[in-house]
Amino acid sequence: MLAQNTGxxxxxxxxxxxxGEQVILKEFIRLAGGDAARIVIMTVATxxxxxxGEDYTQIFRKLMGDSGEDQVQCVHIESREEAQxxxxxxxxxxxxxxxxxxxxxxxxxxxxxxxxxxxxxxARHEDxxxxxxxxxxxxxxxxxxxxxGSAHDTARVGMVRLGAGLEFLxxxxxxxxxxxxxxxxxxxxxxxxxPHHLGIGIDENTALVVHGHEFEVIGTGSVTVIDAADVTDxxxxxxxxxxxxxxxxxxxxxxxxxxxxxxxDRIPRKTN
Amino acid sequence: MLAQNTGxxxxxxxxxxxxGEQVILKEFIRLAGGDAARIVIMTVATxxxxxxGEDYTQIFRKLMGDSGEDQVQCVHIESREEAQxxxxxxxxxxxxxxxxxxxxxxxxxxxxxxxxxxxxxxARHEDxxxxxxxxxxxxxxxxxxxxxGSAHDTARVGMVRLGAGLEFLxxxxxxxxxxxxxxxxxxxxxxxxxPHHLGIGIDENTALVVHGHEFEVIGTGSVTVIDAADVTDxxxxxxxxxxxxxxxxxxxxxxxxxxxxxxxDRIPRKTN
Lengths: 272, 272
Hints:
The structure is a homodimer.
Chain A: E1 9-12, H1 23-31, E2 39-42, H2 49-64, E3 72-75, H3 86-93, E4 97-100, H4 105-112, H5 116-126, E5 130-134, H6 136-139, E6 144-149, E7 160-164, E8 172-175, H7 184-193, E9 198-202, E10 206-211, E11 214-219, E12 223-227, E13 247-255, E14 259-262, E15 267-270
Parallel strand pairs in A: 1-5, 2-3, 2-4, 4-5, 8-9
Antiparallel strand pairs in A: 1-10, 6-7, 9-12, 10-11, 11-14, 12-13, 14-15
Helix pairs in contact in A: 3-5
């Protein structure tokens, strides 16, 4: 169930433009309040939190102009203990937008899952906090996330390792760097096992802007939606690990900017 | 329209097993008459016709046992003139199975298209001749074929160059080395422009065995079928070359051995 005031999500397929038009990062700042935004950068996914955090700090400060100096801060969490600290909580408590960097999505869920930071992010998001995540930060948004898996291969059973996401966007399974890394077969493999989830593959420099049950596409690539609701035959339940998957009657949408999607009704639409 | 006696087609996604089980090449020999088969190897696609022809000659002779010695021959066509020669025609006239090697599909269509060899192959195929093609030899089977195009990229308008195939299997658009080279987006791009065609992507060491309107899958990979008949929105007609494609409500099937497909009704089915 979505709370009435649930904040927007910005789910980014990685490698967003940081030097040119910066359409996606500008949208994040806009959603979070523009010049009045208070931004927290969560670097928990990366093993290089200080470099990555500093890069985004500079970018966001620049985008916010004069007002940015004091309104952008990093929260570096490198242990579960730090995910319980008052200092981390205080930063999130006062933020209008929280941005998760890339890295390893399993770091995010294993370090944050069930902590006070996790609970506070959910509470504040249900009360309007804007949440953004790129790459690993996008993957962890979903209920079930792809932890790792091979690509460029025939769809096989178990070609991805799945785990629990932090569930800011329920009912979906997100993959990123999608076209660039040829990941459609791994997403199909995951969706064959979890056909109640909607598979969403996001290209680089491309993002979903989610408001309630609707998302729109922004950026320069496309978003692939895989809907297994009408699947008839599949052999996924009969196979051993790594055997080749058959699946019939998958519905597929490729959406570019100008298109959106209703996640509840599973229907694409034009937005302009 | 399919003639009553039209021979089977074996459409191979490239890199078929030549040393192990050889499931696909054995099926070709079996379809062509087993020990009584009379095989012609067409090397027109490759720039190395003598090496490639010799390799397949040895393989087929071995598979046919004692009887193979005199029943396997190569037809090397390196010019349109040679595609009018009596010698080429005589070989095809007496064959029970013709095998097209890999190489460049555009060589096949540009050297054979409209020649006496082309006409004879069609006439004999409609009268029961078994036709097989691997890689380039698979691509040319369709009405419209992909000549070349980038892969591993977001689906874009015009990301593939299309041309006329030799049309042994009408109504489809075939791509090969499919999962291995991450070609789903280029096939989607082609099908977006030609939604009346069915897109068929064949993995390596995988083949369609086509009898009439039905095919079955054999080999070790899978076959991806893209059906755009129910597509609602698309922007393909509005875009410039290389702009990103949107397409909604594509139907997708991934079929493995044990599955088949009715090309006329566009319906997948289990075969065992």
